Amino acid sequence: SCTGNEQDAFADALTHYDPEGCPHPYHAGDLPPLFGAGDLAFLAVLTNRFALDEVIGKTLILHDRPDDFTSQPSGNAGGKIACGVITRVAR
Question: Using an 8 Å Cβ cutoff, are 75 and 62 in contact?
Fold first, then answer.
């Protein structure tokens, strides 16, 4: 969930989605960086790391700095600045 505590507002989101036990940046839950311009951001993802049904109900965290694609476990990407829960839209 997108809840937490005084030290980490999103602590209950837990860690990256990583069903295969891969190191960063190769685990399934590590998405590519957002492209930002002013108050807008864009991200498009095509992946074979997970299926939609696997991530419904999982949380998505945005960090305040770019990923260095090296440091463990989250690429030295800084603090968590936003959180959301992935839901299925009725069709």
Answer: no
DSSP state for residue 23 in the 8-state scheme: P
Cβ-proximal residues to 33 (8 Å cutoff; 6+ apart), any chain = 43, 66, 67
Length of the chain: 91
pTM, two decimal places: 0.79
Give the span between the Cα atoms of 55 and 69, in whole angstroms: 22
Enumerate the β-bridge partners of residue 36: 41
Q: How far is CA 59 from the centre of its chain?
A: 7
Over range 58-68, report the average pLDDT.
89
Give the pairing of strands 59-63 and 35-37. Answer: unpaired
- For residues 46 and 31, give the distance between their C-alpha atoms in angstroms, rounded to a whole number: 10
Which phi and psi angles does 11 have, rounded to 5°?
-60, -35
